[in-house]
Structures are given as C-alpha cells and as structure tokens.
Amino acid sequence: MRRDFVDQVLLEMERDSSIVFLTGDLGFNALEKIREKFPERFLNVGIAEQHMIGMASGLALEGKKVIAYSIASFATMRPYEQIRDDVCYQNLDVKIVGTGGGYNYPSHGVTHHTVEDVAIMNVLPHMQVLCPGHSWEAREATKAMVRHTGPAYIRLGKSPGVAYEKGRALRFALGRGFVMRTGKDVVLVSTGNVLDVALATAELIEKKSGMSVGVLSMPSIKPFDEKLLLKHVRSAKGVFTIEEHSTTGGLGAVVATVLAKNGIGGKTFEAFGFPPESFLKAVGNRDYLLKQVGLEPVALARRILKEI
Amino acid sequence: MAYSQKQLQGIGSEIRRLVVEMSHRSRSGETGSSLSISDILAVLYFKTLRINPKKPDDPKRDRFVLSKGHGAAALYATLALRGFFLLKTLLGHRVDGGALHGHPSRGAVRGVEVSTGSLGHGLSIGVGMAYALKETKSKVYVLVGDGECNEGSIWEAALSAGALRLPNIVAIVDDNSFQGFGPTKKTNPFDLASQWGSFGWNALRVDGHDTKALEKVLAKAANAKVPTVVIANTVAGKGVPSIEHTLKAHYFVPDDAAMKVTQKKV
Fold this sequence. Notes:
heterodimer; A: alpha/beta; Rossmann fold; 2 domains; seven-stranded mixed sheet; B: Rossmann fold; 10 helices; 40% helix
C-alpha cells in the first residue's frame, strides 16, 4: 500500500509543481524515488513532527500543497495541536500521511500501534479522513486527497491487502464507499486493510448459516458514504463494523451515528475493533495481534452468528 | 513616510495607551506581555517591514508572525494605527460579539498573517514561510516570548532553520524576564544568545525599548546570510509604573483609578 501511495505521489508531483513533500525522517526503502526525482520539493525535516506540521502550515500559507509523512502514531499524536490549530483552524492545504496504522508495525510495540488516529482526526473541523483497504483504494485515495484543497489525513496499512481492482469498473471519490460483496441478511462494514478479514468472515458466515452476507469497504471515513450504507442495511438483520482501530470514535461510531440518525432500528449492531480501555501488550506479528483482539474470521463469524 | 525616532517613540506610547484601554474595557489580562512588545512592533510596522496596508496580501510583502499570541492586543493596536483597519475595531477586543479574540486569528481582521495562541507554534510556521520564500526578497519576522522558549517545538524549528541556513528569517525574542508563573530565569537559567547560537543562529542583543537601536539591529538582521535572532531586553508592563518588572504585569487589568494614571503616563 505504501508503494501505491508513493507511485501516485510521483504522478501528482509531476502534475502539480506546488506540491512539497516533507518527512519526519521516515521512508527508508520507500521515499527514495520522490527524493531523487524532486530534490527541490522533498525535505527531511528531521525527527521533529511538531515542527514538520508547523512548517507544512507555513508552506501552505505561501501557496504550497504539502504532504507530511511519518508513522501513523507519530504523524497524528505528537503534533496533534499543530494539526488542530495550524492546519485545521486555518483550513490549510496540508495532507498528513500516517503509514502503518493499526497493527502494521506489530512487534514494535504499543508506541507504534495506532488505534486512535482515525478517532482523533475525525473530530477535527475541515479534516478529510481516508483509510484505504487495498492497493487500488490506496492509489485512488492518494490521488483524491492530493487533488482536494484543504486538510486531509490518510492512514496507510503496510500490508497490501488483496488486489480487488482487477476487472472492476470503480470510480473513487472522497466520501464514496464500495460494495465488495453483495448480501442482504448481514452487512459487514470495513475500513482499512482488515478488508481481507471482513471478506473471509463473510464467507464463513455464509457457509455456516446460509445467510447472505454483504461487505462494504469504506476508505473514506470523513466524509462518509451514508447513502451507500443506508441502501445496503435496510433489509439486513444485522450490521457489524470491522476496523483495525479502537471501537471508540472510528468506523463503528460513525456507522452507529448514521443508523441512529436515520431511525434504522431493530437490527443487531456491534462494532469490532480494538477494545478501548486497554493497551495490547502481546508480542507477535500482525495476524497474531489481530487474533488477540478477535479480529480474525473464525472468531468474528462465531460472535456474529451468536449475536444474530 | 519616513518616521523620526520621536515619532516611533510616540507610536510605541500610543500602542501602550490603546492596550491599556482594551484591557480595561474587556476586563482581560495578558496586558504586561502586550506592553513589553509595544516598541518592537512600532519599529517593525513603521520602519522595518515592507508592507502596504492597502495590499495586505501583496506577495512581495514581508511577513510577521506573532508566535507569542498573548501579545495580540499590541498587534491589533499596531495594525489599526498602521491603517490595516479602523481604530474603532479595537472596541471589539475580547467582548461579546467583537471581532478580536485575545489571541490573533487569521482572517478576523486585515494584516494578521497567522493564527496563534498556543505557544511554540509560530516559529515553525515562519520557517515554512521562509523556506517557501527563500528565492524571493521577502523576509519573515517571528516574535517569540522568552518564556515561550521553554517549548520544545521552538528548538525543533530553530534547529531546522539553522540546518537549512535560511537567510530570510528573523526571530525576535521578547526577553521581558517573566513567564506565566514566575521569572523566566527559574525555568531557563541559561544564556539565550548561546542557546540560539548553538543552533546556527546569528544572535544579536538590543534594548527592546530603544527605537533607534531596534531599527539598526533589525536592519542588520534583515541583511544577514543566516537565520538571525534579536534578543530584545524589554520591560514587562512597560509604561505602567506600578506593574513594571513584575509578574503581575501579565495579569494586570486596569481599574478606573488606574486608567486615570496610566492614560497620562504610558
């Protein structure tokens, strides 16, 4: 997914000479091409995320379109006040890129696990929040984000997910979700690169129960595709959200709000993700960690079938 | 218009008078930190900065960032005196339905370049502006507080500008010796000039109420080939004798009796 992002950024920087790319000293084995091709518009500001976002704001005030890159936890949490006061309050054209959101830096530990970023970005005025689920969504989300004028955050998963784009005639836009699988009895709503978990869960539920299970991929959390969600959940018995993020303030909260606001009741609803009020101290790879919090197809299918 | 030293001193005094009035009207503090930068702003806006109040967005202008946003009252007074907006706009400072917050808000009135208020943000923004403007003749001036230099982000920005050897950024430290809850020396007992110097900045010192010396040092800073910091020794609560050089200057809200005295002496 990071490669998709870099490839698209190269195209966008070619197309738009106002783009400046800043990194907080990260991007080894990923950003070299950007540095080589656009040495005048690429700057390693050092391990200084607060300064990176402040500097990005200064550049944006002078008419630049700025992409600021770091690991998701450092890109969002360390400079949060700069993002709020400098970028969002002044509605500046700054794109914040958080690589490795969720458990994509698994064995690095809790400092590198990022399960709060979507929530804290969601709450900011003017901020667009993107969380692509696979390669095509990552490329398209990058393109849409860069071409949009104003603050935006994109969370990139490290693993590529499955290549779903082949043979599909999809058009990406900010605020648009995608039907990955049709089904009317149960709807699973997913964001980010746990999409493969959501799809495998749907298969299992269908196989075990005979119910038809739909899966929606929501790479755009803010703005959110309410229409698509409402269209697909009306006849469903249950709606379940799946995200590699805290169940507080992320996709689950957004979906629950949309359902409640539109008077969609009488359905089983559950938000699956990282349980709030805890830090995951388990050591292991991403699949291992996802399993620890129940974000794996067998456990999810079991819980959903039990609840429905 | 070329302003004489006497006129510049008069403008500094007028900024102070307006600050005290605004503080009295809105019953709000942060007065001392506005008073301490009054002469610096007078020299910047009436001598140093290449600006045109009729064209506040002229790309060729110099930029000014008030990183110590709590000095906003002085900035608003200065902008009004310089003709960016009408003096009566100052009546809307920190009052219901007014146009002016207690900290600068971009877009609220003409001439405010950057929204600030949380300390430690403005220098990074200034570095970004200076980096974008490095091929132009525009200079970026950022006014920070001595207490604000406690913030780590100030030193991230200082390191960055020093490493990039940005010639078009000038930081001015309002060294009024006080921060929110005590003397600055208690939290930073070290020499500010050496600290900035070690980050690659050319450090100059000046009396922050001597308009002639300020004019000279700012001209020198503008022509430097590396980032330059002007450490201006100033007086917290300048112009109001009962609060000068005191911590309470920061929180001073003039009452009616104080107004009678201060309006004559500032």
